[in-house]
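> example.struct
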């Protein structure tokens, strides 16, 4: 499946992104099929060739949520935004393993010592 997504370039602290068409199984920094545009988050510039984006979408390529949201923000198309991140889930205990309050250690069992009784005479 083909995806239209961002590919990070630039050095550390100075991110710059390309908008590329790539097979979804390829590495993010690997080879791409076509360069469609670029995004500079520092200057807030987003340039993309919408004719080619529409061509790839009509050919079956899917747009990543981040690219979709950039296209919506910069008024390239009138679609709804997508959620591009997943909120962290709070760790919930499993049903069988509910948190129980710690029990106090059991008191040592009392040892009963029998007092020696008088021996019974044997007959």
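> example.seq
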């Amino acid at each position: 499946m083909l995806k239209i997504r961002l590919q990070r370039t630039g050095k550390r602290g100075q991110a710059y992104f390309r908008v590329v068409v790539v097979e979804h199984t390829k590495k993010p920094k690997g080879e791409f099929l076509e360069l469609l545009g670029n995004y500079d988050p520092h200057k807030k510039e987003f340039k993309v060739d919408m004719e080619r984006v529409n061509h790839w979408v009509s050919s079956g390529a899917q747009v990543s949520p981040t690219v979709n949201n950039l296209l919506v923000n910069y008024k390239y198309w009138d679609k709804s935004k997508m959620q591009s991140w997943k909120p962290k889930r709070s760790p919930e205990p499993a049903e069988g393993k509910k948190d129980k309050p710690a029990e106090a250690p059991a008191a040592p069992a009392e040892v009963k010592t029998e007092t020696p009784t008088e021996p019974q005479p044997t007959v």
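> remarks
The chain has a mean pLDDT of 85.
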